[in-house]
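Write out the bound-state structure for magnesium ion.
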Amino acid sequence: MIIPLHILNIISKIEDAGFEGFAVGGCVRDSFLGKVPSDWDVTTSATPQEILDIFKDYKTIPTGLKHGTVTVLTQNTPVEVTTYRIDGEYTDNRHPKSVTFSRRLEDDLSRRDFTINAMAYNPQFGLIDPFDGKSDLDAGVIRCVGSPAKRFSEDALRILRALRFSAVLGFEIDSTAKDSIRSLSQLLANVSRERISAELCKLIVAPNAVSVLLEFCPLFAQLLGAPESLEAFLQNIPYLNNSPKDPIIRFSILLHRTDSLVAAKAVKDLRLDSKTAQTIMRLVALADTSLLPEPAYIKTFLSEYGEEIFEMLLCMKKSLNTELSDTLLEIKEIYNKIREENQCYHIKMLEINGNDLMQEFDIKGTEIGKLLNQLLLAVINGKCENSHDKLLQYAKIYII
Ligand code: ATP
Ligand code: MG
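---
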């Protein structure tokens, strides 16, 4: 396994001080899968205070001292160094009531969720894998460390993590774990909407999303607050296969043709930023509008919704196969031409502005906006050229 130099340095400094240090969790899993890990976590027998002492010449951040985590900054890369931990009793299906530190690596590995995430590695000791995670990794299986029912009840977020890892890695979830996921899914009600949303956003764009969403459709429908939309979801999910890996487009595909109030509630529950939420709602509402391959129509659409929605809607329609692909191509060509030639489809693109109109006519406030809109429509529909003089003339004759 190739461990980056800054991680090797951290491990050897910990060892020089007489403690153990291992790369652990996702980075070990991803390295074996031949992927470049997004981050490297270190687990250690040293207590947080001992880590702070060992790295006193480094910049450190006491990220979560109570939970044993110190962030060590090496070459400006933050690395989380966490003390071997035993989690106490779980009371709320999410967090352990207490955490105790341990000097035994096995204790720490046994609190981890899945066998593929419970492996540790360092150059001196090689792979430490008490739960046979490497075999599960090779076989493509997601298996809980210990009893699935117990582990999912302790922390219900693990249910979604299992589904997400299955979608991302294309792994099968072990069958007892699957049974527990189905029977304990209601515990997800105790997990914060933000955590659920973060997992769903990763899951929905994953390579194996479609089969996981189909297999656990009732759970996802429930999670999105839309159990009554199960049928619509089952019909929508396969379209994700043709769609780009963009969560906005994918959530829009999933939610279109469901009840609009249900979709609005689901989007709200996803706790997305307001712009993203609004984009999804617009795409859901527009999904069944037929787009016409006509320049004036496209420009009017652009003036109303903007380029981003237009481009996403084209992607969505392509995935949904609702418009003939020739028509979509034609629309795309017209759109490209509009953009390339910088044709006017927005008030800001008019060769006249509110000040010009105020100087010429005795109007103010909302009247200016209305007049600009009328001029824009005239330009879009080819009734007036987009030049200052022509627009003024047009306004004088036809509007005022
Ligand atoms: P990724 O970063 O790709 O999402 P990861 O496995 O690194 O995957 P993290 O959330 O970064 O996931 O967690 C790091 C490690 O901490 C995991 O590999 C796992 O060993 C452990 N872990 C994380 N969340 C839980 C949990 N809810 N229950 C038990 N162990 C967990
Ligand atoms: Mg990680």
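---
The mean pLDDT is 95.
Residues 152 and 158 are 6 Å apart (CA to CA).
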